[in-house]
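ESCALATION

Customer reports they have been waiting on this structure for their group meeting. Please prioritize. Original submission:
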Amino acid sequence: MRITRLPAVALLAFGLAAASVAPAAADSTPSPGASKDAAGPTRAGTSFRTATEFEQGQTATARASVGDYLYWSFPADAGQRPTVRATVKLPETHAAETWRVDVYDGLRRRQTCQYGAQTRTAPADAPSVELACVLRTVRAWSEPWANDPLPGTYYVRLTAVNLSASDLGQSVDVEVRAESKDMGGAAAVDGSLAEPLVPGIALRTEADDEGDGAEGDEKKSPSAVLAALEPEDGWASGWWSDRWVWTAVGGALAALAGVAGYRLTRGSGRPSRVPPGA
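Update from on-call: job pushed to the front of the queue and completed.
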């Protein structure tokens, strides 16, 4: 009876562990801010230093001219696989246009898209064109020589290429949205960054008191402004991942299997008909 109970105990332990992990996995599946569909910014920057920030899950809009370079930025943390989508509403009359969306990390390194229509050509007089770029999973740590996505600010650049002279300067409406899928412990790596890649993106003028005692005698000097946005739960890069939970579950099941094997192979002991001194 004891031997037959061991498999049931092992299955019960595995079920309890899986039940404890399931809620955490369900909570981490949506991207940060994906549940809130708040209105995003209504403008776009024209360079990396003037990129307009927006949260993941928001839709950033802008009205621009064909031929402009448009820039936005958003935060992405380790374990996320960001997806950037852009929709350009074209003028009623236009020639064939090719639009392209590029994504750069905090070091302004262009990141490769795993899949998605990163470049698309809109036929003449087409009402709109849609672009998408699915990045690789953001890693918590990487070698200095690697070009892996790292946690921090990511820049989105949208522009038209191979334009005809007649289309330059025409007005277009643009929508950009970024979302992420949490890849969980499968994407965890050993090690983490001390700080996310959030470099200065703009310059602002601050009043620096020179300490001469005069309140009105202040000198203004420009200083770099760091990105103000971060993931909803903060930068969570670190050693913890759900792989530790499954490792503990595997260890418990291995221990139970060892006990079961021992009970099966040790036998029933000395038969009662055999005297102790035999």
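Sent to customer with the following note: The first strand starts at residue 52 and ends at 53.
Escalation resolved.
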